[in-house]
Amino acid sequence: MSKIRMGLVGAAALGTTVFVLPAGSTQAQPAQAAVCRGETIKIDGGKLEYGECSQNGMREVKGTLNDTKGNGRCVYAKVVFKPSGETRDYKDCGGEVTKITTGWEKASDAEVTLR
């Protein structure tokens, strides 16, 4: 009996599942996990809490924008993806907290500001 066949027979006797890949076959590499970091930016009258994630050359920003004074003056957040310059603008004028989600963009960095 060949060595491969003997190995399969032995594995079957133990109730073990055996997978045989042809020589030269390749397996797909698992996707790289997203790397995220959280930040909080505070100014007089506003707060922005967000997470910036990167994965495989893409970036995404998600978070909440909050007008903390509720005095009728809005606060504004801006996300600029680098190097493309793709921009997302958000504002909150009190009441419900504004949720921000940029979606994934091809970028090496994201610049996030609050005013």
The helix/strand series, from N terminus to C terminus, equals HEEEEEEEE
* Uncertain stretches of 5 or more adjacent residues: 2-14, 16-22, 24-29
Strand content: over 45%
Main sheet properties = 5 strands, antiparallel
Signal peptide: 1-28
Organism: Streptomyces armeniacus
Protein name: Secreted protein
Keywords: Signal
Q: What would you say this structure looks like, in words?
A:
The protein is mostly beta strands and 115 residues long. The chain has one domain. The protein is 10% helix and 48% strand. The protein has one helix and eight strands; from the N terminus they run αββββββββ. It is elongated and about 45 Å long. Residues 2-14, 16-22 and 24-29 have low confidence and may be disordered.
In short:
Keywords: Signal. By secondary structure, the protein is mainly beta.
